[in-house]
Specification:
Strand order of the largest sheet: 5-4-3-2-1-6-8-7
CATH superfamily of the largest domain: ATPase, nucleotide binding domain
Number of domains: 2
Shape: globular
Radius of gyration: 21 Å
Distance between the termini: 17 Å
CATH architecture of the largest domain: 2-Layer Sandwich
Order of helices and strands: EEEEEHEEHHEHHHEEEHHHHHEHHHEEH
Strand content: 15-25%
Largest sheet: 8 strands, mixed
CATH topology of the largest domain: Nucleotidyltransferase, domain 5
């Protein structure tokens, strides 16, 4: 059974084809510059050279058609025909309060996703476009929605509500939702395995650090708080997003610079964060390299980001009580050892004792690594995330009728004998 996972962004479509019977990825890739022109696909198959093809994709349906063509092509494909695809899993960034788990997509589900697209205007519209495009091209197979927000729907009311007029929540859904849920789910389950304890007995702080950054406080296996809020703008310092700031700043700068609401929103989302401080970089590899060469603003950006990470670790320790582990994941979390070191050092009084050599050696996206000392009361792990595997397992379980709440459902990666391929 081959499961296709799709992640449709505003100008890109990521995909992965997973052979469920053999439990391995057989192809993955991305179509970039969808809609905006000069589109191309990068297609990867294990054991083969990466293939690139330029092909104009004026919309998501054309992009998904391109993916299917490449997957079934004689020269570069891995499928004999399109009917080899058994089901499609779709990433949906925002499910509002309507969805607490992955669901089979029907007309009512799609309508419900459309009803909350105002909560994620940059993300949900392309997610919806991708679903409709894939349904048109693959009408014969089931389609499943996997929501970024679902994992965090266990947060208590006092954690997800803002101290704002209550009717804003009742009438407009203004509350904390959280994102990167599949990543936080995956790495927290893996951390429980590494700790040798059931997930329901683990208290963990998970730190997903890429261009987008979010953290989760996980108590007894479930999310009780998370750093992103109504939108992915709140929380940690990110590649281009500001994260937590004084809420009076936007109005102040709108008056000073005569900016519109749309302009200030664009600045906070696309021109702030690491890019805002350095003035030229979002990729932390560039920031680290230039900081080492003496660039003051790059060093300042690293210091600001690490300081915010440190504060989130401390505040989430207070939220969960006894802490078992901290987990770093995603591109920067898995590869950025200087940022991890800056975020962790000085936390010995909280039971976190960093092993600097282990931390420096954890520079791979393929291995799970302990980066604290053996006698550190709180363990810190670097765990490569695998959101697509969560997609795949949810899809298969829904098709089999075995899917349930993640604390009851047994994912393969939550088993002690799981081996990452």
């Amino acid at each position: 059974m081959d499961i296709l996972a799709l992640n449709c962004g505003s100008s890109s479509v990521k995909y992965q084809l997973f052979d469920w019977d053999r439990k391995e990825v057989i192809a993955k890739g991305m179509v970039e510059r969808v809609i905006i022109g000069d589109s191309f696909i990068i297609h990867e198959v294990p054991g083969r050279e990466t293939y690139r093809e330029e092909s104009e994709c004026p919309d998501h349906q054309v992009a998904i058609h391109l993916i299917i063509r490449i997957l079934t092509s004689e020269a570069h494909g891995v499928l004999s025909d399109i009917n080899s695809i058994s089901a499609v899993g779709h990433r949906v960034v925002h499910g509002g309060e309507k969805f607490t788990c992955s669901v089979l997509i029907d007309e009512q589900v799609l309508d419900a996703v459309k009803e909350v697209q105002h909560l994620a205007p940059l993300h949900n519209p392309p997610n919806i476009a991708g679903i409709e495009a894939a349904q048109a091209l693959l009408p014969q197979v089931p389609h499943v929605a996997i929501f970024d927000t679902a994992f965090h729907q266990t947060m208590p009311e006092y954690a997800f509500l803002y101290p704002l007029p209550y009717d804003w929540y009742e009438n407009f859904g203004v509350r904390r939702y959280g994102f990167h849920g599949t990543s936080h789910l995956y790495v927290s389950k893996r951390a429980a395995v590494l700790l040798g304890k059931p997930a329901a007995e683990c208290n963990i702080v998970t730190m997903h650090i890429g261009n987008g950054v979010s953290h989760a406080a996980i108590k007894n296996g479930i999310s009780v708080d998370t750093s992103m809020g109504l939108t992915p703008l709140e929380g940690a310092v990110m590649g281009t997003r500001c994260g937590d700031i004084d809420p009076a700043i936007p109005a102040f700068m709108m008056q000073r610079e005569n900016l519109s609401a749309k302009e200030i929103d664009s600045i906070l989302n696309k021109k702030s964060g690491v890019l805002g401080i350095t003035g030229r970089f979002t990729d932390r590899r560039d920031v680290i390299e230039h900081a080492e060469q003496g660039d003051r603003l790059c060093q300042l950006a690293l210091d600001i980001e690490a300081y915010r990470l440190k504060k989130y670790i401390g505040s989430y320790m207070a939220a969960v009580g006894r802490l078992d582990a901290v987990v770093f994941t995603a591109g920067v979390g898995e590869m950025g050892w200087p940022i991890r070191e800056k975020a962790i050092e000085g936390l010995e009084q909280l039971g976190i004792v960093l092993d600097k050599e282990r931390n420096k050696g954890a520079m791979t996206r393929k291995r799970e690594t302990l980066i604290t000392t053996d006698d550190s009361p709180v363990k810190v792990y670097v765990i490569p995330t695998d959101e697509e595997l969560v997609f795949t397992e949810d899809v298969v379980a829904i098709l089999d009728g075995t899917y349930t709440d993640h604390m009851q459902f047994e994912y393969t990666f939550a088993r002690p004998d799981f081996v990452r391929k």
